[in-house]
Amino acid sequence: MADECDVLIIGAGPAGLMLGCWLARTGTKTRIIDRRATKITRGHADGVQCRTIEIFQSFGIADRIEKEGNELAVPTSRIPDTEPNTSRFRHRVLNQGRIEDFLIDCMKTGGLTVERSVSPLSMEHSDSPTETHPVIVKVQHLIPATDETVDVSSGLYRSNILSDEEFNRSTAKSGKIETIKAKYVVGCDGARSWTRNQLGFSLEGDSANIYWGVMDARPITDLPDVRVKVVLHSANSGSLLIVPRERNLVRFYIQMGTILPGEKLDPSAQSPEKIIESARKILTPYTLECPEVEWWSVYEIGQRICKDVSFKNRVFLAGDAFHTHSPKGGQGMNFSMSDSYNLGWKLAACAKGLASPSILNTYGGERVEVARELIEFDHKVSRLFSGKPAITAESEGVSMAEFQALWVRMGKWTSGTAVVYNSSLLIADSTAAKTELAKNIIIGSHFESHMVLCYADAHAVQLADKLVADGRWRLIVFAGDLGNQNQLQRFNDLCSELKNAPKSPIRKYTAPDADLNSFIEVLTLTSSPRNGLSYSAFPELARPFVGKFRYPTYDQVFSDEVSYLDGGGKAYTGYGVDPDGPGCAVLVRPDQHIADVRGFEDCVEKLGQFFDGFMIQK
Ligand code: FAD
């Protein structure tokens, strides 16, 4: 008898675990399998970009990265690592194993755990229109060999210098076979994706002829800049990237050499000693000793992308299964998690029958475009990293000025905060929206944060912290000056229409017995101070009564006032909204991307049409 679930996730790396968090939090029946008996504990990715920490914050777990990760705030050749005003968080570094731990704990709070030593054998799709769970996957439960000793300091077992055969070699014995029927399957199974191969999709693009070594070590060196992020180009021995890490570790990326076309690196000839020797040549005249290497690996650079990320909107690819590139831009883990952060809430809404499956087209529409930009960026960065430096402006080679300029230009982009999705079923056409009412808000971009004051208790809060990842949409109402009677009336009228008008999406798509804020949560931000209007004078939509005992909510109304201790008072200016003007309403998707901006007068009608495009009325 087959087991049925809404979503089957294949692969529990960063992409799979992030998806698991969404699905667990939204109560979607999910299974997540991984063929490896244990998770990684050391090495691999370590850069955690600002936007990724914002995403972690939406699950309430950013503090764990803030506490353990090392901050990269200092200049690389005098360039700030995080541009001021990029995000309320700063670029940090922490090993992938810990990031995965945080996601695993987060998933557990929603009752989902990884099933390890489970490997898929076959996948079929039923076209029957009556089949509710059309993807049938046979999986095998593996019995790991008891005498298997794993060298945790070597990351070679996941390197792309291994052949498929070497990569797939396992000492585990085959166990029970099980059939799983799923509404949706997501292949988060890494660069050599089994799911992608089953679908007959392939990665296209380049693989460069340069190979790199990487290691996490506690070095002894007279190089002065070993605790700041440094890019070092030597005249003849290649280049090296230094990233200071947690627990006094330092991550080194070291250019090792070139491979001729058709040639293959011998994995057994690679060693930490060889990597250290290459690093010494680049660092000369500085000295380097690494008595303690916690983790190391060797890999080839390549930029590849799979143009197809979905099969019949039932099977999807996310993360490295869909794009691969070099680690030097610090993007892989971040991009992989952003893929599934984009997909998770959409799958949850479709699995529960709340939204039309047509919204799933936006996953490929949005992420393939961004992945193309990533590949283009990585191509440029890798060329500049690996090229020989030009000694003078006239000589041949990589211009250091060009290298620095690219780094500065791409600063915001690499932070992950510059992603803007184009108009679609889930993003309104910006030319038709009322963007003039919120001049600094970009439709399709993520909602940036500003410090505001909670109306009920005067606590200073980051407004974006209220955009919790729970599947709800947010309508952020810039109510303006509510000390002005005319504006107060307009605001009350808007709330009343949103709550009661038959065409209002809140009225139409909130389940009859559910809380008023369960589908769209209205967050109100006034430009007038808290003492101008009492909290109890706000209409019910702004401070609904929720739960079994109809408790009043105290965390949906805010004022753009300066906090005595924490500053703030600049939100209206930051978002480009006139504090004495007519106000506006900004619609934000469950993944924090801005879907629309409306004036009070056209808000209900336009948002009604927007949601009618894909929501299913129960
Ligand atoms: P993976 O992390 O590869 O996870 C795939 C999971 O699927 C694994 O757990 C695997 O066991 C499982 N799996 C595979 N096949 C199957 C199967 N058939 N059945 C079941 N399970 C399966 N990225 C950054 O963002 N920043 C960095 O600084 C950075 N540095 C890096 C340094 C190095 C040395 C390396 C190697 C990578 C680095 N990356 C970096 C890239 C980053 O590690 C990857 O992009 C990221 O791990 C991709 O996540 P993923 O979940 O898509 O895939």
From TrEMBL:
CDD domains in UniProt: PHOX_C (cd02979)
Keywords: FAD, Flavoprotein, Oxidoreductase
Any GO MF annotation of the entry: FAD binding
Organism domain of life: Eukaryota
Database matches in Pfam families: FAD_binding_3, Phe_hydrox_dim
InterPro entries: FAD-bd (IPR002938), FAD/NAD-bd_sf (IPR036188), Phe_hydrox_C_dim_dom (IPR012941), PHOX_C_sf (IPR038220), RIFMO-like (IPR050641), Thioredoxin-like_sf (IPR036249)
Phenol hydroxylase-like C-terminal dimerisation domain ranges (all copies): 419-617
Residues of the FAD-binding domain: 4-127, 171-377
Family statement drawn from the similarity comment of this UniProt entry: Belongs to the PheA/TfdB FAD monooxygenase family.
Protein name from the UniProt record: 3-(3-hydroxy-phenyl)propionate hydroxylase
Organism: Mycena sanguinolenta
